[in-house]
Design brief:
Layout (H helix, E strand, L loop, with lengths): L2 E12 L2 E12 L3 E5 L6 H8 L7 E6 L2 E2 L5 H7 L1 E4 L11 H7 L9 H6 L2 H20 L15 H13 L5 E5 L7 H17 L3 E5 L3 H7 L2 E6 L2 E6 L1 H6 L1 H8 L5
Parallel strand pairs: 3-8, 3-9, 6-7, 7-8
Antiparallel strand pairs: 1-2, 1-4, 4-5, 9-10
Length: about 260
């Protein structure tokens, strides 16, 4: 099976602080891979390097065999990588449909002149995008929410809309930064099923950061663990749960 994402000894330093230290991982195509660790372990920093928001101090990131270090985030998105953030970043005053349409921005086939003059090309592509956005919402079970303001949705559904907007970019790899943060148990369970469904429906590879251990253990095939920027373990959920280094990282040294 192809390797969707390969992180090769990624190191990210901020002055004298090493936030991520030689992090390596290979994520196979069509798998769900989890990255966990205590607060401040370097998980989001690793995501920021992978998505082009930070340029690593050293190391390389390969996306389907091509190095993407140094590329701008919008370029990486156009190659097929999409990301959500821990804090939901929807446009609250826009409808669900309008939020999804923002995900098509990099695919626009008309220019500013078409927009100002409302040319036939503008109307043609606007109609096509709206139809595509509605089809996307239908495929993820959110079509009935299309004309509602994003601000009026329950928290769990807002997260689903954010993921749907990421899907609008046409990704091959979807990165989710703590998708279950702030959710109650039922919302978390619904989200788990939602991620599994979109992964299968859209033929995706999923790479996620999460603090909810039950969520991670039930969803991910392989899990890597960071502690103080260093990967201390990688394996399937059962192996991670039993790993003494992982237990020590979360609970402290009980023999001390």
């Amino acid at each position: 099976m192809n390797i969707a994402l390969k992180c090769d000894k990624i190191t990210m330093k901020f002055g004298g602080l090493t936030a991520v230290n030689e992090f390596s991982a290979e994520i196979r195509e069509h798998m769900i891979f989890g990255l966990i660790g205590p607060n401040g372990a370097g998980k989001t920093t690793a995501f920021n390097v992978i998505t082009g928001n930070l340029k690593p101090t050293s190391g390389d990131v390969n996306f389907f065999g091509k190095s993407i270090v140094g590329l701008k985030p919008y370029k990486i998105v156009s190659m097929g990588m999409a990301r959500t953030f821990q804090n939901i970043r929807l446009f609250s005053n826009l409808t669900v449909l309008e939020n999804i349409l923002t995900g098509f921005h990099h695919k626009l086939q008309y220019n500013i002149v078409d927009t100002v003059l409302r040319t036939p090309r503008y109307y043609k592509h606007e109609k096509e995008m709206r139809n595509t956005a509605r089809e996307l919402l239908k495929s993820v079970g959110l079509l009935d929410k299309a004309d509602l303001k994003a601000s009026g949705l329950p928290y769990g559904e807002r997260r689903e809309v954010e993921i749907a907007r990421a899907l609008a970019t046409g990704p091959k790899l979807l990165l989710l930064d703590e998708p279950a943060a702030g959710m109650n148990p039922q919302e978390t369970l619904n989200l788990m099923y939602f991620i599994q469904e979109v992964k299968e429906s859209f033929n995706l590879t999923v790479f996620l950061i999460e603090h909810d251990m039950k969520f991670v253990m039930n969803l991910c095939e392989t899990i890597a663990v960071l502690d103080h920027g260093v990967k201390i373990a990688e394996g399937n959920p059962e192996e991670i749960q039993k790993n003494p280094d992982v237990i020590r990282a979360y609970l402290g040294d009980i023999d001390a």
